[in-house]
Amino acid sequence: METGTKPQPHKHLGCAFPTRQAWWSGMLVVGRMDTFSTKSLALQAQKKLLGKMASKATVAVFIDDASGEVLDELYRATKEFTRSRKEAQRMVKNLVKVAVKLGVLLRGGQLGGEELALLQRFRQGARRLAMTAVSFHQVDFTFDRRVLAAGLHECRDLLHQAVGAHLTAKSHGRINHVFGHLADCDFLAALYGPTEPYRSHLRRICEGLTRMLDEDSI
Question: Which end of the chain has fewer CB atoms surrounding its CB within 10 Å, N or C?
Fold first, then answer.
C-alpha cells in the first residue's frame, strides 16, 4: 500500500460490506416491518369510532386472539403475494375497520329485524366457508378455488345488504376491496400451493379458523 493512501473497504462481488452501523440500521428496519398487529389496529379503530357511533359504555375488543392470529397470517400471506407491505396493511386495515363498525352497530342495537336476519345468513355463510377452507387444507386434492371465491362473493353480497345505509360508501368500498382480494383466484392458488412460505401461512390460518369454529366465534 502506498504511503498516504486510505484503505479501501473490502468488497465481495462488487459490493462493499456494510458497516456495523448500517447493519444495525437494516436490522431495525426489518424489525419495524414485522411489528404489524391486527389487535393493536383494532383497538385504534375502536377508539376512533366510539366517539362517533357509540357510547363509552360499549367499549370492547371486537377482534379476539384467534381472529387476530388469522388476520395476522392473512397479512403476511398478502404481503408475500403482492410484494407490497402497504397493500397488505391496507387490506387488513379495511377488514378491521369494517369488523369494528359492524360490532359497534350490533352493540348499539342499530340493525333492524331484516338486517339482523341477513347478518345471520352472512355468519352462517362465513362459518361454512371457514369449514370448507379448513377441509381443503386437510384433505389432499380437494382444493377448488372457484368454490372459495363463490362463497366469498356470496358473503360479500349478504354483508352489503345487511349493513345497507348504516355504513358510508367508503365503508362499502372497503368491503369490496377486502373480499375482492380474498376471492382473487391467483391469491387462493398461491395460498393453497405447495411452496413456502404459503404452506406455513395457510396452516396457521386454518389452525386459527379451527379454533374459531370450536369456540363458535365464527
Answer: N
